[in-house]
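Many introductory courses stop at the sequence. We go one step further.
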Amino acid sequence: MLRINTGGDNTVINSEELLIHHLYELEYADGMFLRMTDCDEDIDYGGKIYSSNAITHDGLKSSSGSETNTVSLSIGNADRQIQYYLENHNILGKTVTVTQLFSDVDGNIKGEIRGSYRIKNATARKDVATFTLALGFDLYNITAPNRRMFTQYCQHQFKDSNCKYYTADPDVRCGKTLKACMAFGNSVNFGGFPALLKSHFYI
């Protein structure tokens, strides 16, 4: 189990060697949560255990008309655990919190980004459960500032219209650091701000 140390610097991220983990807290009943991570081992963070799972989410999608902005969340369902919760609990409208952690190799937190969503729809097949998440509108849950600027972390989605990198290989992944972007020969489209003064906080 990976133990992440709290109390780190939540301002500008400067480290070139960052580990990036996502923590997912899914409410299935009042005060009851499933906690998962996309890390290849369980994570102990803030006294809570996040179990390793095949879980991913995409970027925020803007919709027109009366539709709200949504995020798609996919969770591995090979053991039918997620399907059990879908069949036995009314999860529509419940909260999903996604936390992106940045830590050094010793597990010390260098920053985090947290987003809170409401479950709009959920379906399950034999191998994967898919959730459509809508932005929550509880103002007390909004993290300010709503955008943070990082020196060595790219905020673009890999291979999107801002990143502009293309590869047909679906197994290629980006570490979302300046060093990784340079290795792809794509530093001109890097989504961080390496010129920022390291002793200041930017919003």
